[in-house]
Protein 1
Amino acid sequence: MTAPDAGLHLSISNVSKRFGATTVLEDIHLGMAKGELVTLLGPSGCGKTTLLRVVAGLTHPDTGRVELAGRDITRAPPYKRNVGVVFQSYALFPHLDVAGNVGFGLKLRGLPKADIASAVHRALSLVHLERYADRPIRALSGGQQQRVALARAIAVEPSVILFDEALSALDRKLREAMQSELRHLLTQIGATAIFVTHDQEEALTMSDRVAVMYKGRIDQLADPRTLYDQPATAFALSFVGQSLSLKGKVVSSDADGSVVETSAGPLRVPRRFLRGSSVIVATRPEHVTLTAGDNTLTGTVVGATFQGSRSLVEIDAAGTRLTAEMPGRCTLPERGETVIFSWPLSETLSFSGEEHA
């Protein structure tokens, strides 16, 4: 077993979990510094919520170790972990008012009433709900209820706060506003936090680092810009952001890279592969232009969508549907028009065809 790093605030080492014959988590390693926000991002069933539950003490791992603030909490019950959790459903008590909900955890700890009142007021002030202390929960909007759940987690001054799809119940506009507000608040109080989501935009907006999970493992752990610009695997590429990708075989290779023959034509990649290897060649849509360049292909326009600051052009290249992102005010090609398009070699990504995609 790998020894935990003593300099980390939260250390997850060699954690695995099975439910019957199904492996839900496999040899997970994740270390977090104090005050860091890491998002677990991935599709349903990838293990992100199970990992969150392991940290919260709601699920015990079959193997591995969890340390928080230098203390082994692998088998500790939830109430002895000093961990705050904000659930997707908020899990608020309808028979208690706002202050009663926020102070519930403090009351369980047996704190004096004056201390509870002070902590509740501080927590509600942080989420701008101090005027709502005596309101019934049912009288609040969804966004306000989400803030109450956050205030309850903050009030106990936890060592780490866990968010399980905490913003998913909000409408898009409120959700985007809360992302920015929540990120600012967590930075303000210096909270260490783990955020679970399947929403890639939310992950890129909120996080110091993102752990992309796939089939119970961490596929890539990186800061948002690195994750987007330099995905380590074909799955990370496909799951985070839009991408243009083609499969092919390597027909030649030299010191500067390889040439991959695809159904749409030959493409150059700045990476050496063995001749005959299966390779996925990719780029991001914003790097594609409707001109000749390093990697040039020809295709037929099947659709174009104006989206304000950008326009998306769908192109059929020998049976493969690809997307090019154009500036919003550019003149768009007509449906059925044959176009030449390309992207720079420097913005070309490549992955072994044997990797999961």
Protein 2
Amino acid sequence: MRLLITLLVLALSFYAFFDCARTPQEEVAKLPKWAWLLLIFLFSSIGAILWLAIGRPKRNPGSGRSGKGKIIPPDDDPDFLRKL
């Protein structure tokens, strides 16, 4: 049981550390990116929980593409047809 808890804390810490490292500096909240990385490294479980709770930027599901959401074929796209 102790081994499982230790592995879960380690996995959470690694996930938070690498998630923070991959996040662009301008999207990080509350503290500079280097401070979050140091906090996660020094205080693994507490730092990871704090990063996930308040430091991580809010991600919008579905806005990963250009914002339209679905691909429209050229013959159905009014903007494309206007340009002809």
Protein 3
Amino acid sequence: MTKLIPIAEAPLSWKHWYIAGVASMEQLIGAALSTIVGVMIPLILYLGSPSMTAFDQGVVGAAGLAGIAIGSMVMGGLMDKWGYLFLFRLCPVLIMAGSVGVYFSDEVWSLIAWLFVAGLGVGGGYSLDSGYISEIMPEKWVSFFVGLAKATCALGFVGGALVGYIVLKEDPNPAVWRDLILFIGALGLITFLLRIHWYQSPRWLMEQGRTRAAQKAAKEFFGPDAEVLPQKHEDAPKGESWFDMFKGESLKKVILSGVTWACEGLGVYGFGVFLPILVMALGLQGEAAVGIPKVLGSVKTTIFINIFIGAGFALGLGIMNKVNILKLMGWSFIVCSAMLAMLLAGYELHWPVWISFASFVVFETFLNAGPHLVTYVIPARIFSVSERGAGTGIATLGGKIGAVLGVFFMPVLLRVGGVELVLYVSIAVNLIGAAITFIYGKSLKLL
């Protein structure tokens, strides 16, 4: 008789990589969506249809992120009751529907509404990917694959900018902004097709007492030798409420994880969505001075800058288990502040363009090696089992609030005080992130 292998103890195989890749698609799509929106906005402004004020630009940029925030909370709660499979297939359908709606939008509020719908799908995937990965991967590989899932967003940032560049290169017409969103719809379709032959989480089924279905799902994923064992719960204490989290030691953990995540959100999404516009404002787009060639040049520069998002994640994943992750995050915030100061000095003192470009590259590398990666994994490191669910939820909400505010206020800051004000505020936010990290890290005896 063949000996069965529990999925939590199974040796790593190509099937695990495939599962992680399919489960992580919304991480890629979310980053690509943010980048595509950042290319769409200047094209719509040139075209003048639909017309957009600075306020409208902020709302358009933040609509998808608001959808992500709500989608992750709502679907994260539903998956505990309904299971993962239906929602896992629903998310790419919402992404496709939102993309089609954006394509046919003729006024700004319709555009905002459909971007929000696409964001709902992405946000749901954010909750589901970590669930599937945590419950299907071998236990010793869970942290690595959860971090790797987050790192796939680097492909989305580069891919979104690359698609924008190719489309504009082939047809330098601002009206092509509609065609760009079809890339997001295509990614949603691919994701849906990959999930047709998919199965419910074996561990979720086991938790529901559906033992036979759980064993069948395990075998569908990994073959006839796989099995799933019941989880042990006897030592698990009762969970804390959100209200309890804002007291005593738990409050310090909330501030450490939630506020730093909010500070990180400005750099990742505020800069991520409006990077082509910031590149033009800083004069880093190359020789083109006006019109669509200027936008095309800014998108080309964006591609090169975004490549270092992946380099940052690779650096962070390589060292995070060898260093104190709070020190990694705190010092990365400081390096990011210094690089933004270099950008500001380069702009005001008319330094050579290569200095500003290099500053941007170092900024992206350390932002993603430190705060972007660490804020995603730190709640599981600092919250006890009894408070982990509530603590992670609050920290995630803080991150999304920071991202939405960063994206919303970016065009407003540009309109009010130009790129200088954007950089001054961004420097301050990164320094606040560093201060919170070191102050509360020491207070909690984590440094």
